[in-house]
């Protein structure tokens, strides 16, 4: 199972909005709504930000939102803050009953 | 509060075996399953599995419900197994990870 495709990097200024894409196939996120997103700061464990495409866990800011269209899922962060600077990963269930991560996107807040 | 506490760092020689532990507390262990995720230095996240789905049959994952501990044993270690290994909690069938351990660094070097 190949990794889902994410841009290597995105950037934005404080207060702006950015969107990170995650592209898969009809064998994974195109056919299932089991898409989640994780934030990882350097040297830290990943943290769940979005599950089931667009749901936020308790405690996650509503500045984070998720969506999906066809074989592409997206994570949008509005009102960028310096602490949002981190790596972001998408994760999808697959038709083989396995899970696959995206390659990761480094967000830089300028 | 729920937490996953992993065992300490390991340094092994090529061909050796290693067992990493992940002790759960603060929640009903049987309600969730534990997956393993690894991250090579400077690389992205890779789902290893919750039983031996990947790594060419070199990995064995077990749980001890008497101690609420999950184990991952990796045999035939190679240099490219060098990574941080995370355990992560998933409510059965939800396909996302809402709780992570802090990671266990495994270095494989001669």
Question: Could you characterize what this model shows?
Answer:
The complex is a heterodimer of chains A (110) and B (110). In chain A, the strands form two sheets. In chain A, strands 1, 3, 4, 7, 8 and 9 form a six-stranded mixed β-sheet that branches. Chain A has a three-stranded antiparallel β-sheet with strand order 2-6-5, with no helix packed on it. The radius of gyration of chain A is 13 Å and the shape is globular. Chain A contains no helices and nine strands. Chain A is mainly β and 110 residues long. Chain B is mainly β and 110 residues long. In chain B, a hairpin with a 5-residue loop joins strand 4 (32-39) and strand 5 (45-49). The mean pLDDT of chain B is 94. Chains A and B meet through strand 3, strand 7 and strand 8 of A and strand 5 of B.
- The succession of helices and strands of chain A, N to C, reads EEEEEEEEE
Which bin fits the share of residues in helices of chain B? under 10%
Rounded to the nearest angstrom, the radius of gyration of chain B is: 13 Å
The string of secondary-structure elements of chain B, in order, is EEEEEEEEEE
Largest beta-sheet details of chain A:
6 strands, mixed
- Overall shape of chain B: globular
**Between the first and last Cα atoms of chain B, what is the distance in angstroms?**
40 Å
- Helix percentage range of chain A: under 10%
The structural class of chain A is mainly beta
Largest interface: A-B, 24 and 19 residues
Could you report the average pLDDT of chain B, rounded to the nearest whole number? Answer: 94
Number of helices of chain B: 0
Per DSSP, what share of the residues of chain B sits in E-state strands of 2 or more residues? over 45%
Count the DSSP helices of chain A: 0
Give average pLDDT of chain A, whole number: 97
Give the distance, in angstroms, between the N- and C-terminal Cα atoms of chain A: 35 Å
Q: Provide the gyration radius of chain A in Å.
A: 13 Å
Beta-strand share of residues of chain A:
35-45%
Work out the number of β strands of chain B: 10
